[in-house]
Model the fold of this input.
Amino acid sequence: MTFLKPELKLTRRSLMAGVAASVVVSPMVISSQRARAADDQLIVASFGGGWAASMTEAFHKPFTEATGIKVVVTDGADLAKAKAQVHAGNIEWDIVELATGWLSAGARENLWEKIDPTIVDTSDAVPGTQHENAIGHCTYSSGLAWNAAKFADGKHPTDWQGFWDVKAFPGRRGLLTRVTSNLEFALMADGVDPKKLYPLDVERAFKSLDKIKPHVTNWIGAMPQTVSLLQNNECDFVSSAAGRIFIAKKQGIPLGYSNEGVLIETGRVAVLKGTKKRDLAMKHLAFMMRPDRQAHFATLTGYPPVKLEGIRLMSPELKSQSPDPASPKNALNDEFWWEPNLLALTKRFKEWQLV
Amino acid sequence: MAIFLAPLWSVLRQSLFDPNFTLNGYSEIIESHLFIKILYNTLQISLTAAFVTLIVGYPIAYHLSRQSPRRRALLLILVMLPFWTSILVKSYAFMVILGQDGIINTVLYSVGLPKIQLLYNRTGVIIGTVHFLVPFVLFPIMTSLLGQNPDLARAAQIMGASRLRIFLRITLPLSLPGVAAGGLLALVQTFGFFITTALLGGRGDLMMANLIDLYTREILNWNLASAVAVTLLALSGGIIFALGRVRGGMSAFGQAA
Amino acid sequence: MGYVFLILPTLIVVPLSFNAGTELSFPPTSFSLAQYRTYFFESNWWEATVLSFWVGIATMMLSLVLGVPAAYALVRADFPGKKILTLFLLSPILVPVIVVALGVYLYFASIGIKGVALPIVLGHTLIAMPFVVITAMAGMQNVDRNLEVASQIMGAGRLLIFYKVTLPLLRPAIVAGALFSFLISFDEVVIAYFVGRAGFSTLPVKMFGSIQWEISPVIAAISTLLTLLSLGVCLLVAATAKDE
Done:
């Protein structure tokens, strides 16, 4: 018995860590707050973490101050759960933050209320960011990052052609282990016009990936690793996310991020189908489209506004750090192209990785 | 009873109905090179990791079994400490230790040896996995070491056998059931692993559990996810059964339990 | 050597937790308790801990209520299929955890998301109970059967014997089982995430929550605190073990 007790304890501990493990690679983020339906409050399902804090700061708190309507941010925004709520007719969330792919997948399942144009003004926005089922309130991008302490300007690639050019820019390369965005990068590297990526030429993309494959020393499983790999000199050039780099730079980690050749995606929110507070939710979405709010959000996160007026409100310094969606060197992600292709291409990408 | 059966039943049903009866999930698995390769990978990583774990774990278990109960309890606390650290920060810690500019490579470099790549390849996966698994194998091995009749070794000693000979001829063979049980526990655990491979592995390091996670949450194809899960289940079931055939295998597990 | 291998990462993590800022950095560039402050006072970390605590208590209760009698029956009673039932009860340990998690997820999806913390507790009980059964069975081996027989001769009913004789003798094993089931639940993340609903994120779920963008150094602080806690708990267990 003396050692039996610790034994069991430890077995269980190990089990847990194993389970815990499984969550990490999946895109889910959580912030916790008690949510209870009340007439004068909205429930927003969020990704949590620093993101939720910034959303609250820039949008939810000022909304409550302006209207008296309480906004409860709840954890675990999740497409499967949204689907379960709509199908069971048991609506718990009013507003849902959307990860890439959810707008299209959810639209297929009819999970989103139509945006009410009489309440929400989506005009004067970056083209391609608005949809009948969701507003876009910011843009974010994935692109090329490097250790700025190690590589002076001119010594590192600034676009995907440079990333692919191992002779001009020798160094260890890292890419995320997912098919989305890697195909786009491969096509841009191969000289496809970033504004004409879709429909993706899949064959050409994989051929292009073949060329860089031997030089990729790190296949990165989780986004935070992109920063720690650069920070600890494990890797020289990686694909990362602008917002991730923005936060790390704020903490004094010397990183560079190119505003060229980035893949721009839209940060969206939608109203869950069947909510009893549809109008109230639309009112909040309208508030989130305010240029000043979006500009504030940008100062917190580095994610630029979608409202052109909001972009004009950004400080010149912040603007210089933000990729320009209008630049001919940058691409806009089309999740509606990805939606029907994701399963097959994910499989193909994993197969490609294994060979 | 129901709470044990229901979840597994759900997996089985989901793997066969979508919503009508279908074998698509399974035929997808059988026909796909991807699954065959990943299955091969999974077995390779799991077996290597379990083996290395036993090599690393046995001396610790042996050492523990020779301690007084009180010292043993204290040492066990040490052994269990790693479990309290989230794998997220642990993967960062591994980078500090094993990275190209890490502690080990810095030492190697300073004594004039070449640096070695210990992370983001199969070695990284094995190191991370073994680190996690060692405590699992300690207990079964320790149980069978402690359960041995000390008179046997003493008798051999009196008859003039060397310590090494005693270990090889008496202690080790008698502890094999514990080794088998520990190996089994380690092996089955690794089937469920994938964060370690995702965080510390290289390009080719993909395991079955990675696929289950991917299909469950990112692609929402529960039919396929369930079929992979059932395959994994059958695999571990088969190994447990095979081990049960080995003399004493299962009883050792019971004993460990 | 083996010990060093096991402990080294923890030794790295502890200093990580005393660094200020929102990024992990080694060696630490500053000494601060900022991460601990964040844990105790910000972003609902503490609230998540409290939730985990209660779910853990509930899981512990349920696992004990179900597991201890099951263990008793398995050790004392003789019936056909006993071995198979034993293996079956212990099966969640042998099944890859990801499969269990998927099963629990699909099961609760199929019956619709009902209740609040209940699904998490049920899921956790599923994986915690085998440990209670094992500890209780092991403890049962140490209970002298003659004591039960003696009570029976003196006219006590089976139930009375179980409550008055067996249970008190099993106390150490039950305490250990209780501890394990609590800690299993306190640490579990996949089931808690899958079946949990709005407003119910347990500590581990919250810890893995923001991983998409950042590995918050708060997690290093939590790991450090949990390490200390486990040291305490283990010393406690070691101390009670001496009493036997």
